[in-house]
Design a protein that fits this description.
This protein is mainly α and 139 residues long. The chain has a domain at 1-97: 434 Repressor (Amino-terminal Domain) (Orthogonal Bundle), CATH 1.10.260.40. The chain is 51% helix and 0% strand. It has six helices and no strands. It is elongated and about 65 Å long.
Amino acid sequence: MSAPPQDPRLDRVTEVLVDLVRLSGLSRIELARRLGSDYPFQRVTERYKEIRLRQLFQFADALEVKPLEIFRLAFAGDDQPSPLLRRLREHSNKLDGVLSVLGTSTTDPPPDRSGAQQPRSPAKSRRKPRRRSDPIADE
């Protein structure tokens, strides 16, 4: 059985998993116990099968690491934001600039456009609270 063609990014994640297993000090038997089987580790490391996201989470749990840490290790040095995030950041900066000219910011709560009056907070109200009569006690 030949291995499917691999995406280089998958290869990096797999290499990180293999390194983490080796560095964890877990025996293959203990890892298999934590994974529920030796099958996923054997198939992934021998490149017969691509790792699934669920399996990545299982490995992370078994190794007591966060999935994000696996990705950070696999893609260390690749810290440039993607084109979409760069565009979003640029639009956000433009919006902040426009809002600062208008004297507001993205952290201000949105104005109420319903026309309803905002309820006053109890600390600002000068009225004494009305006492409600208890219908059961009045009988």
